[in-house]
User: What shape does this take?
Amino acid sequence: MVFSAKPPRLRASAVKGLTFMTTLKVKIWRGTESGQFQTYDVPRLESQTVLDVVTYVQRRLDPSLAYRFACRVGVCGSCAMTVNGVSRWTCRTHVDKVAAGDTLEIAPLRNLPVIRDLATDMTEFFDKWAKARGRFTGAHTRKDDFATVKPESKERKRVDAGIECIGCGVCYSACEVVTWKPDYLGPAALNRAWTLANDVRDVAQQERLAAVAGDAGCHACHTHLNCTERCPKGISPTAGIAGLKRLVLKAAMKGEL
Amino acid sequence: MKNDHRARNHPAYWAFLVHRVSGVALTLFLPLHFWALGNALQGEARLESFLRWADQPLVKFAEWVLVLLLAAHMAGGVRLLMLEFLDWRDWQKTLLAGAAGVSIAVALLFLLNLT
Amino acid sequence: MNSGASSVRTQVLLWGAQRVSAALLALCVVVHLITIIYAVRNGLSAAEILGRTRGSFAWGAFYALFVAAVAVHAPIGMRNIFAEMGLRGRGVDMLLVVLAVLLALWGLRAVWAVVG
Assistant: This one.
């Protein structure tokens, strides 16, 4: 006797693409910091992303649902949410990958104030980038020639490892230390500081090391690797934070802090 | 809002939990350990009588747990030092397996030598 | 980033002290574990333990270093845990300094007991 290993929904999809398969039970957070999950029935489709699900609910079932997105292809970094308890980009997460059975739970990012439903207030997150001295300060003027940074240099490689961050907030939301110490700068801001600390053209190094030092800076990191585990770009903020810890310790021992 | 266990369910976080729990337990145990050794101030016989009291199975079991915790805290700590002080990228998971292996090996050795 | 009474430089040096003491402790603990596993082979006895340590400068120096390192290491770890529970500031830091000193003295007493 031959049993089909395929679940029924795949058999249905074999007929033609985008065929209606089964119904997803989707629990979506409604409210602000206080609120509750509300359940919606959403038709399950082939190659459906979590963002497709949220959009379906807002367009077809409840136009009052608040959420944020822009590019839908993993470039802008605005659609991050907590899907089944884990921080993710909703646009690059297929339902097939995360749906436990036919259920999904979609909530706003953690560690950030909820404005409404799935939209968080990211002010604090970006303010911390500024606090971590996350902007470039050069000494060259337009009259100077281009700076030469060799692609194979150690510094340039370190910058490359962290530079692709698009500021989506997934790591910040995943970080346990941010929850425990709300003044902790967090992985994204520190990763940014690390890329600048390795930018040989930057002239504000000492100031930056002072900004990221100590109990609310890089030294608060416990190497949980939550950020590294969840970063959709495959960056390891933990590695950059470890680099900062060493640079700052050196500076502190020399009395430069 | 805060994360729940689903966000923390990965090996590096379990390693953190082991490190924290073992660290606290060892810190609390230290004063007792120092007290026990301090018995020798009143002579060898006094220390000997403490050691004979400590032969009870329950105390032996507690000792075994402490050896395991000490090995785990040491191996996990070496892993953290390597993550923090070496330029690393891809071998962090191997390190974790190594640390777990060392702790279990030490605990087993202790157990084998006890009997 | 100042969060409490200690200066940022102090916070960084505390972090460094915990790592340096950790490296020392890793070596000490390896020696300690080997000694433990060796010592329990035929059961622990006071005569065997004291026979090894009494009058030994090497064991005395080793255990004194071990105690000093742990007296630095453990209180800094506790400081992190307290901070993450929301307990920080000068009061907590002072309390931990006192605990560090007590732990060191209590430990050195134990070293004296088996070596002296």
User: Anything to note?
Assistant: Chain C has one domain: 8-115. The CA atoms of residues 69 and 114 of chain C lie 19 Å apart. The interface with chain B takes residues 19, 22-23, 25-26, 29-30, 32-33, 36-38, 40-41, 43-47, 49-50, 70, 74, 77-78, 81, 103, 106-107, 109-114 of chain C (CB under 8 Å). Residues 8-115 of chain C form a domain with the 3 helical TM bundles of succinate and fumarate reductases fold (CATH 1.20.1300.10).
